[in-house]
Specification:
By secondary structure, the chain is mainly β. It has one helix at residues 26-31; strands spanning 4-7, 10-13, 18-24, 33-39, 46-51, 57-59, 67-72, 77-82, 91-99, 101-104, 108-113.
Amino acid sequence: QVQVVESGGGSVQAGGSLRLSCAASSTIFKANLMSWYRQAPGKQREFVAQITSRGMTDYADSVKGRFTISRDNGKNTIYLQMNSLKPEDTAVYYCNSRGIGMYWGQGTQVTVSS
């Protein structure tokens, strides 16, 4: 069965904002570390942000101060608020859940035009 599902990608001009969502099954959401990764064309998948079950967060240097990861425990969902977007943020964004197993979402495209 599907464990992790992303939504919210799209196209935006530089300087704009988008919010991504990732819904997970309740069992893994409560126990697991939830993260966002991204993969740009021709590049390796890279870490973006993570949030623990207790709400502690960490970010890649490239997004600090612009992106915010959060979680809604009532909805078993994490969010990635992306502000001041740059063309180099263009990528497929993946939600990851690990701890009890390892799960990846299908990815959602984010395109930032200059």
